[in-house]
Amino acid sequence: MKPGLAATPAPLAAAATPAPAGVRRIIKLGGAAVTVKSQLETLRPEVLDSLVRTLSATAEPGAGAGGGTSASASTGASGTVLVHGAGSFGHFPASEYGVVRGPISDPGVRRGFTLSRASVTKLNGLVVGALVAGRRWSGGRVVGCRGARCWAIASGAVPHPE
């Protein structure tokens, strides 16, 4: 390319793709509801299975959904985002290492944060896995998204990082 000439940007591939349907509902699944909070990393599979059946029953044929957060997943119920808490996955290391007290510059707090995130990531995998395995809708999409990486609140808006 000659100096002083700018390349013409290629059109975005997404421009030809229809925009996804908006979020119709957000469902918060409490961590204590889906886990045995008093026992380290203990899932209540019967509760999770019941949730998957309920979400499947509300699905519209052929409908998809957007992404989820924090340990979350979207469901085939069009426009649904499922968000879940940590329950017994995350609270144990966070408490043991004093994550809530900080500061993050403390090596013990950083270790606790790391162990807590790893534990919550396990739960997110179980939730997403149950949704993928149990989906009974046509074309339903399930996407797990770690909340710590994907969403931040700034001035009342929910931006998505670049």
From TrEMBL:
InterPro entries: AceGlu_kinase-like_sf (IPR036393). It comes from the Eukaryota. This is Isopentenyl phosphate kinase.
